[in-house]
Automatic annotation (TrEMBL):
Membrane topology qualifier: Multi-pass membrane protein
Protein name: ABC-type transporter, integral membrane subunit
Keyword vocabulary terms for this entry: Cell membrane, Membrane, Transmembrane, Transmembrane helix, Transport
Ranges annotated as spanning the membrane: 27-52, 72-95, 107-133, 139-159, 171-194, 214-233, 264-290, 302-321, 333-350
Gene3D superfamilies: ABC transporter involved in vitamin B12 uptake, BtuC (1.10.3470.10)
Organism: Thiorhodococcus drewsii AZ1
GO cellular component, one term: plasma membrane
Cellular compartment(s): Cell membrane
Classification via SUPFAM superfamilies: ABC transporter involved in vitamin B12 uptake, BtuC
Recorded superkingdom: Bacteria
Gene Ontology terms describing biological process: siderophore-iron import into cell
Molecular functions (GO terms): transmembrane transporter activity
Amino acid sequence: MIKSAIDNAVTLEQGRNLYSSLATRRLFLLIVIGGLAIVCFIADLSIGQAHYSSYEVLSALWDSDAALPIQVILWEIRLPVALTALVVGASLAVAGVEMQTVLGNPLASPFTLGLSAAASFGAALGLILGVSILPASAVAFAIPANAFLVSMIAALFIHRLSQKRGITTEMIVLLGTTLVFTFTALLEALQYIAPDQALSAVVFWTMGSLSRASWLKLAIMSIVLLAVTLMFARQAWALTALRLGEARATSLGVSVGRLRLRGILLGSLLASVCVAFVGTIGFVGLVAPHIARMLVGEDQRFLLPTSALCGAFMLSAASVLSKTLVAGQTLPIGIVTSLVGVPLFFTLILRTRHQ
């Protein structure tokens, strides 16, 4: 009996040491990814049409005596764009990881569930037909408001159907795919009748761009990101348990239906706000969560911040690439994320297949 107690104590101590080592490794990975995101952020601030050294640009952050042109370029143009890349990347990744978690489907994301396509259609209604839920005096937010409203309507539609008897998580993803094709067809119909000027505006919007970033839009997206992330963090244990399966999560006291509802609606809110302000940006919400899972596993206490940092790093790196791929031009960031995201996601699929 004494020997058994000693063996249990040794096993318990070994388990604690193993968990401590695993937690340390995960924290180290968080620091590394955060460092990479900061490096990309600094590079994003340093690169642009106006040629200034990194030291000149960065010194303007704290030096009030810096040259006026540098201060204007930094505070009015580059800093809002660079910070928006971080916030939007983190938001799409958090929305993607929680949608994948509550639906139990690795293909779930704001893009594949039709939210981005719905937002694009909402924006096109304003740009082509002049339909807006806001008065003419709020012209700067008329298009984002349209995009947000239609995107949330699509999310509520998905949620409503998900409550019907016999609807599985696989059916929800298929429903989202159906919405993608539906809103894409509607968007193409509007583009067909659009005049040239409105057509070019719609095409540019659907490509995704950070050029419309402003301090007010950044503040709105940051507040939503912080609030939604905190709500998800409070449910970290329940979300982790859900990955063990619905039956086991229910046996542990998790209200799966309520948790799924909250995950879908909060993830949709987070993604819709970002897409409404910056346009359609694909693959970040799909790829970043998978990279985070490969690094830290399914524990939401680590998966949630790692996904956010991976998304921020990916979109910040894409912002840098958008300024450097074509000399003298800035590509829409949605094009860059798609070009990079497709081969990256293909690689992840092959790696998972061989595991």
